Structures are given as C-alpha cells and as structure tokens.
Amino acid sequence: QVQLVESGGGLVQAGGSLRLSCAASASIGSSRAMGWYRQTPGKQRELVATINSGGSTNYADSVKGRFTISRDNAKKMVYLQMNSLKVEDTAVYYCNAQYGSDYYGRPYDYWGQGTQVTVSS
Predict the structure, then answer these.
(1) Rounded to whole angstroms, how far apart are CA atoms 57 and 30?
(2) Residue 78: its H or E element
(3) Rg (Cα) of the chain, in Å, rounded?
(4) Residues 6 or more apart in contact with residue 63 via CB below 8 angstroms
(5) I need a labelling partner for 103 at 20 to 30 A (CA). Which of 8, 41, 114, 120 fits?
(6) Which pLDDT tens digit goes with each residue over 58-73?
(7) Burial (Cβ within 10 Å: 0-12, 13-18, ≥19) of residue 65
C-alpha cells in the first residue's frame, strides 16, 4: 500500500500563488501516473492535473495555463504550482497515485487525505 501526504494548502488572496506538495511512501518513478484532483461540497471530485511515467501532463481546461504539475522521483514528491488563483479554485485538493494494473487493466489507485485551499477575493 502507498501512503500519500499532501501539504501546502491554506488561505490565499485571489491572484496569488500557492504550491501544493505530495509526499509518497513508495517510489513514484514506478507509478503509471501521479495527479491532483479537487472537490468542493456537493460536487464530484474533478481532475486538476496529471503527469504520467513518461512526463506527459494533462490539465483541466479551467486551470490550463495557470497550474503546473511536476514530479521529483528521487524525492518521491509531486507538486502542483498554482498561479493566478481564483475564488473558484477553492476546494480540497487530493494527491493521487496509480500503479500498475489489475487483471482487468484497472490501475491500483491511492489517495491522500487532502489539503484545503481557500482563495479569497
């Protein structure tokens, strides 16, 4: 089992920046993909950004150009740099890790406990 611990959340003014960090208990270099998701009350958890084993990234349209996901395999860390923050970015942000796959091709999925990001106007 892989443990993921997020940090870096907090209160920030609109237009400001914040960097989230995710520390993994296992090698992330061997992961299929790492990612960040977010969730607000009454809504489903949504994709923010992902980065696969080859370094390819994917971003939600709402954060494209403002957020950047990166990874440091040696440190077993994943980061989410958030710039030009908007009030709409307020959510609990979760770190996600996917390793290998089961018999049916579904990846083994792990989640952190989340970190609160609040953007004020």
Answers:
(1) 16
(2) strand 77-82
(3) 14
(4) 48, 49, 82, 89
(5) 114
(6) 999 999 999 999 999 9
(7) exposed
